[in-house]
């Protein structure tokens, strides 16, 4: 069992990550990882974050089930399932440090620029199915390299000016599917420590509380606040990769 300080830090990290993810739909690992990666070894922290993130996504999917756009999400997921194994192969054969930094710079610059724009864009016209699948492929590929599968689909939705409910309904199932696929690949490549399961059980109350409060906050914020929140989180996530 962890000591009192570790227990407090674990609960605080999971609660903060779950709240932000419940509000925005992503960025659990970016928020919780800032603490967990300093408290636990990576082999314990990474699978713990992935498991907690899947729990948050399950809560989000249930809470937003009426807004889910299954047809578009399935196209994203199909593309993502092709991209993730390629990313895993690159991780094993290539030094991806430069790729991660480059992607982080692009995401940070995009978020900073969009935060400074005085007006919002309007919703664009419908796009072809192959383009949606291509966005999913990019999300899966980048997600496998950076643990940020939702970055590209979220940026794409923002560029098209999608309302918050439509954006969450499209991207949420994709992120959940990519995270489940990633943890299956992780379990297939290494044995998980029993400590991960103990820490997961301990963090469940904070995970549930943060997720519920985050979803409630999502329903209360207006479109402008939601968009700025998403862009700030993209900015922070991009900087974390640099």
TrEMBL record:
Q: Give the superkingdom in one word.
A: Bacteria
- The signal peptide annotation in the UniProt record is none
The UniProt keywords, alphabetically, are:
Cell membrane, Membrane, Transmembrane, Transmembrane helix, Transport
Q: Transmembrane ranges?
A: 74-92, 98-116, 128-150, 170-188, 200-219
GO cellular component assignments: plasma membrane
- A Pfam family annotated for this chain is TauE
Q: Where in the cell is it found?
A: Cell membrane
List the membrane topology term(s): Multi-pass membrane protein
The record's section on PANTHER family has:
MEMBRANE TRANSPORTER PROTEIN, TRANSMEMBRANE PROTEIN YFCA
Recorded family membership: Belongs to the 4-toluene sulfonate uptake permease (TSUP) (TC 2.A.102) family.
The entry's protein name is Probable membrane transporter protein
Q: Which organism is it from?
A: Bradyrhizobium sacchari
């Amino acid at each position: 069992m962890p000591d009192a300080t570790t227990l407090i830090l674990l609960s605080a990290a999971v609660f903060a990550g779950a709240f932000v993810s419940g509000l925005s739909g992503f960025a659990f690992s970016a928020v919780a990882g800032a603490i967990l990666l300093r408290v636990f070894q990576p082999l314990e922290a990474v699978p713990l974050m992935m498991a907690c993130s899947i729990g948050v996504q399950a809560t989000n999917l249930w809470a937003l089930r009426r807004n889910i756009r299954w047809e578009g999400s399935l196209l994203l997921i199909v593309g993502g399932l092709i991209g993730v194994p390629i990313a895993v192969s690159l991780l094993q054969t290539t030094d991806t440090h430069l790729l991660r930094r480059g992607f982080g710079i692009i995401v940070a610059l995009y978020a900073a620029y969009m935060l400074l724009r005085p007006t919002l864009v309007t919703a664009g016209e419908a796009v072809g199915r192959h383009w949606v699948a291509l966005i999913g492929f990019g999300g899966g590929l980048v997600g496998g390299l950076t643990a940020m599968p939702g970055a590209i689909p979220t940026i794409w939705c923002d560029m098209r000016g999608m309302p918050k409910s439509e954006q969450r309904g499209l991207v949420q199932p994709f992120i959940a599917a990519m995270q489940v696929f990633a943890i299956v690949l992780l379990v297939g490549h290494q044995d998980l420590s029993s400590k991960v399961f103990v820490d997961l059980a301990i963090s469940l109350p904070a995970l549930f509380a943060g997720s519920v409060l985050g979803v409630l906050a999502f329903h209360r914020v207006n479109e402008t606040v939601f968009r700025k929140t998403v862009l700030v989180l993209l900015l922070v996530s991009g900087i974390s990769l640099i």
